[in-house]
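**Discrete fold encoding**
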Amino acid sequence: MEKQINIDELLTRGVQDIIGKEDLEKKLKSGEKMKIYIGADPSRPDIHLGHAVALRKLKKFQELGHKIIFLIGDFTAQIGDPTGRDEARKQLSISEVKKNAKTYQEQISKVLDFKHSNKPEIKYNSTWNKKLRFQDLIELSSNFTVQQFLERDMYQKRLKEGKPISLHEFFYPLIQAYDSVVMDVDMEVGGNDQLFNMLCGRTLMQKLKNRNKIVMTFEILEGLDGRKMSKSYDNYIGVNDEPNNMFGKVMSITDDLIIKYFTLCTDLEMSEIKELEEKMKQGENPRNLKARLAYEIVSIYHGENKAKLSQEEFDNVFKNKEKPTNIEKVSLNSDKNIVDLLSEFKLVSSKTEARKMIEQNAVKVNDEKIFDMNFIFKSGEKYIIQVGKRRFLEIE
């Protein structure tokens, strides 16, 4: 399993910060095997390219023989991570969490290797957290102060705006910190926005285990609207997105993100990425570089053949103004309202987005723009629906 890995690149490419860097370098030089984990709350069923930045780094550590743990935060998801929120996050039910987490292993297996003897381990933090007694919570919380939590920018913002801060939100970093203690990990990795939560784990490890947990954070990958790629913002590119949709989404990112995406999301050598950056500065059409980027990303998650077909399909639709050759076909058993239909067949993420797309004149039926929220698709009739530039559906 162990491979020759460029250690300098391992510790720098895409990395924002390493708390305990000297400890990490010593462990890597000595050959000591570490237990490293990343956590993800199943607030939505999709793993996206933003998550994959850390997963791809973990793959390198896996190749060096270190033990990787992917922790599904099925307990913490019921609290809701307050990080970066202007208001309290909606708490999820147990059934919602289980439904969202169902496909996580299949999705992360697109990055991590589950077929080797050193395969990653999947854990659920409800396994131990649901056993906590109230007395345990009091003892754990005694290791932190209210000031530590209130100093966070998001809480200061809410205080100034007179918005409520729910007490349960303080439990989130506390429980995440306890995860590190229970699993007795050497290192935790995650997005830079998770630094506070991960440092709480480092504090608890020091106080309860007398050990320094290493924390590695990564640059935040922006999504399709320029904000942090997030399931909450619905601006993400999922690792399970079908090839054509994935290709089209990558082509829609802003030009200033091209080099960042090459760095964080592909296997291209940094020397080649620097050459591409220089080409952009010299006037190379950004669209050409984005096409190369989209090809590389689709290849990683779907293979080169699918990447080639996606590129051809994209060119047909956008260069030649043709419709896709493989439009999904469905049939209706009864008449259906346009808002319901767009949501039901995943042309949009929600009924709210469906209404928004109609308002923005971004929905066509048989090449005609639809403005009526009450438009009805009649059972037995044929339609070709287009939402935005990339999403098509044929009603047979």
